[in-house]
Design goal:
- With about 200 residues, the chain is α/β, with parallel strands linked by helices.
- The strands form two sheets. Strands 3-2-1-4-5-6-7 form a seven-stranded mixed sheet, sandwiched between helices. A two-stranded antiparallel sheet has the order 8-9.
- The two termini are about 25 Å apart.
- Helices cover about 35% and strands about 25% of the residues.
- Bound molecules: 5-O-phosphono-beta-D-ribofuranosylamine.
- The site of 5-O-phosphono-beta-D-ribofuranosylamine has 13 residues, from α1, β5 and α6.
Length: about 200
C-alpha cells in the first residue's frame, strides 16, 4: 500500500521538520514527506529537506499579488502531491481561510507555549518575561483563528530560576521534537477524533 503523504510548510531553521524526517527514517512515522515548501528562499528547512532527498520548494510570496493567490499556488502544489496531512513547522505566514477550509482537520501546527496562553510569534519570550514557572508547547489543528484550533497534545516545561531565554528555548524545542512526531503518528494511525474543541485519542 502507498504510504500516506505529508507536506511540511516551514520558514526557518526546520528543527521540527528534522524531527519528522528522523521519525520517518526510524519507521516511527509510517509516511512519506512528499514536499517541504518555504516562503523564505534561504530557510534552513529547505536545506534539511534537500539533504534528506525530499522535494524542497521555495514559493516566493513576492511573485504573487495577494495572499489568496499565493495560497492558491500552495494548494495546487499540495494537490499534485496528494497529501493527507499538512504540517506547519515554524511557518510564519498566516494561511488564508480558503486554504484552511480546503484542508480542514488535516493541518497541524506546533506552538511554543501552552495554548491558549502566549499566542503569537514571540511566545517563548513572552512567557519568559511574564515570569511563568511552567510553560511548554502545543500541537493543535489549525483553524481560521490564529493559534486557536483544537489541542491535540501538549508538553510542559519547567522554568528554572537559572534559565535564560536561550536555555528555555532549547528546552521547549526539545519538547516540541517529542510531541510533534507523536501527534503525526496518532493522526496517521487514525486515532484522533475531533468533537468541537475536544480531541480524543483511541
Ligand atoms: C518552533 O518553536 C515552533 O513552535 C514555532 O516556530 C519554531 C520553529 O522552529 N511555531 P523550527 O524551524 O522547527 O526549528
Amino acid at each position: 500500500m502507498e504510504r500516506a503523504k505529508i507536506a511540511v510548510l516551514a520558514s526557518g531553521n526546520g528543527s521540527n521538520l528534522q524531527a519528522m524526517i528522523d521519525a520517518v527514517d526510524s519507521g516511527r512515522i509510517n509516511a512519506e514527506i512528499a514536499v517541504v515548501i518555504s516562503d523564505i528562499g534561504e530557510a534552513n528547512a529547505l536545506r534539511r529537506a534537500r539533504k534528506a532527498g525530499i522535494k524542497a520548494v521555495f514559493a516566493d510570496p513576492g511573485e504573487f499579488r495577494a495572499a489568496d493567490e499565493f495560497d492558491g499556488e500552495l494548494m495546487s502544489r499540495l494537490e499534485r502531491c496528494r497529501v493527507k496531512l499538512v504540517c506547519l513547522a515554524g511557518y510564519m505566514r498566516i494561511l488564508t481561510p480558503a486554504f484552511v477550509r480546503r484542508y480542514k482537520g488535516r493541518i497541524m501546527n506546533i506552538h511554543p507555549a501552552l495554548l491558549p496562553a502566549f499566542k503569537g510569534s514571540k511566545a517563548i519570550k513572552d512567557a519568559f518575561e511574564y515570569g511563568v514557572k511552567v510553560t511548554g508547547c502545543t500541537v493543535h489543528f489549525v483553524t481560521e483563528e490564529l493559534d486557536s484550533g483544537p489541542v491535540i497534545t501538549q508538553k510542559t516545561v519547567t522554568v528554572c530560576d537559572d534559565d535564560t531565554l536561550e536555555t528555555l528555548t532549547e528546552k521547549i524545542h526539545e519538547a516540541e521534537h517529542e510531541i510533534y512526531p507523536q501527534a503525526i503518528e496518532w493522526f496517521l494511525e487514525g486515532r484522533l477524533k475531533v468533537d468541537g474543541r475536544k480531541v480524543t485519542r483511541s
